[in-house]
Design brief:
The complex is a heterodimer of chains A (212) and B (190). Chain A is mainly α. Chain A has helices spanning 3-8, 11-14, 20-28, 32-54, 57-74, 84-109, 114-118, 120-127, 131-150, 153-163, 169-176, 180-196, 198-211. Chain A is globular and about 50 Å long. Chain B is mainly alpha-helical and 190 residues long. In chain B, 69% of the residues lie in helices and 3% in strands. Chain A binds chain B through residues 1, 27-32, 35-36, 39, 43-44, 47-48, 51-52, 57, 60-61, 64-65, 68-69, 72-73, 75-76, 121, 136-137, 140-141, 144, 163-164, 166, 169, 184, 187-188, 191-192, 194-195, 200-201, 204, 207-208, and chain B through 11-12, 15-16, 18-20, 23, 45, 47-53, 55-57, 59-65, 67-70, 73-76, 78-79.
């Protein structure tokens, strides 16, 4: 693949969402440039998606890297090009589950160094000049974390995918391989708990008050 | 307005509308589209969730490392390799299955001795059984049967009659015995 070919499918030239199937098709046919454009399009979304579930930048970067390599190697297996985003997210979810499983195992055996990794944002507070901003961030993730960790696994996953990763119900059902009605039921239950969580509502009111 | 006040959507129905408005009944959807109060409640909740998403995005760090892909693009070669590997694996597995099935039919392991004997055709088994039945009748080989005189197993009618006489012969024999006995007795007396 020449440099010219690589640049041919530039995201800025071709726009975004409507050209994703086109890029996927080209990448599947062997265009490295097209795949690099897909990486450009989805890297931040995917990184955030992983970060919401690991709350560690280093782990999120490592997992995102793994996910893109997996996607790169297995792109020929993706039949429907318009489902690339969901497919990428389902690979990421599997990797995240593996990560949590390994983390649990190592924490049980008492030889984990990943605990230090997940505490990375805390340690950054002391060296970062914008310490107040970091404290706000830390408080946000602490409150969100305590709310999300109370939810059953499926409710938590569906809630994050819908309102933090901004996936549609249909996309969520594809990522989780669940029927749409099942996804809706989990989402409804999670929303009931969200509405009842005064701590989160208060946090959001404060945020909205700051910006009005 | 009075019709709006007559009924409003419950909190659960607002949540259902947020999850998927098409799940509401026709009348509820109509009410939601016209009632400012219910619409405002739904929008407030939507705004809260939107705010949550925006905050999460803002408070999440940005990736510092650029994603690095492998040097070679694997699409076409990987597909070929995968197909080649699959085909090779299939051939190897099929060969192994055939060999295992074939050997299990041909050979059987005797657990006691661990030796392997061949299972022959049915006609060969019949021959073996015939030999066994001959041996059960005559344990000694034919050479020794000649020496012992057992080789001549053809019994003629005279011999059989001698061993197992018929009823007539028994009675005549018995009579002759009696008669002979009487004669002897009489001779003795004389």
């Amino acid at each position: 693949m020449t440099q010219k070919d690589q640049k041919q499918y530039n995201v800025s030239t071709y726009g975004t969402a409507s050209h994703i199937p086109f890029l996927v098709e080209k990448a599947r046919d062997g265009s490295r440039g097209a795949f690099e454009d897909l990486v450009d399009l989805f890297q931040e979304d995917l990184f955030r998606m992983v970060y919401y579930r690991t709350r560690s930048r280093m782990d999120a970067e490592d997992i995102a890297q793994d996910v893109f390599i997996q996607a790169f190697k297995n792109l020929s297996k993706l039949r429907e090009t318009n489902r690339f985003r969901g497919w990428l997210f389902s690979i990421a979810l599997n990797r995240i589950h593996d990560f949590h499983r390994k983390k649990k195992f190592w924490s049980l055996s008492g030889t984990s160094d990943s605990d230090n990794k997940t505490d990375q944002p805390d340690s950054e507070i002391h060296v970062n000049p914008e310490a107040l901003d970091n404290l706000v961030k830390k408080d946000f993730w602490k409150r969100i974390g305590s709310f999300l960790d109370k939810l059953p696994r499926m409710e938590k996953e569906v809630f994050i995918l819908r309102f933090m990763d901004h996936l549609s119900i249909k996309e969520i059902s594809l990522v989780l391989k669940k029927h749409e009605s099942t996804v809706k039921t989990h989402l409804y239950r999670a929303l009931e708990k969200f509405r009842a969580c005064r701590e989160i509502i208060q946090l959001l009111e404060e945020e909205k008050g700051e910006f009005t | 307005m009075s019709s709006h006040k007559a009924f409003h959507l419950s909190e659960d129905q607002i949540l259902r509308a947020l999850v998927d408005e098409s799940d509401l009944s026709e009348s509820m959807r109509e009410h939601l589209s016209t009632c400012p109060s219910c619409r405002a409640r739904r929008e407030r909740l939507e705004e809260d969730l939107g705010c949550l998403g925006r905050m999460a995005e803002r408070f999440a760090p940005s990736p510092e490392k650029r994603i690095s892909l492998p040097e070679k693009y694997p699409a076409s070669t990987a597909r070929w390799f995968w197909n080649w590997r699959t085909a090779f694996g299939t051939v190897v597995m099929a060969t192994l299955v055939i060999v295992i099935v074939w050997s299990s039919v041909l050979f059987r392991t005797i657990p006691e001795t661990g030796t392997i004997i061949s299972i022959e055709e049915p006609w060969a088994t019949d021959g073996l059984m015939a030999e066994v039945s001959v041996l059960s009748e005559n344990v000694l080989p034919p050479v020794y049967l000649d020496l012992t005189g057992d080789s001549d197993t053809g019994f003629d009618e005279e011999f059989i009659e001698f061993v197992v006489p018929t009823v007539e012969n028994i009675s005549s024999h018995y009579d002759s015995k009696i008669k002979g006995g009487l004669l002897c007795y009489e001779n003795y007396r004389v």
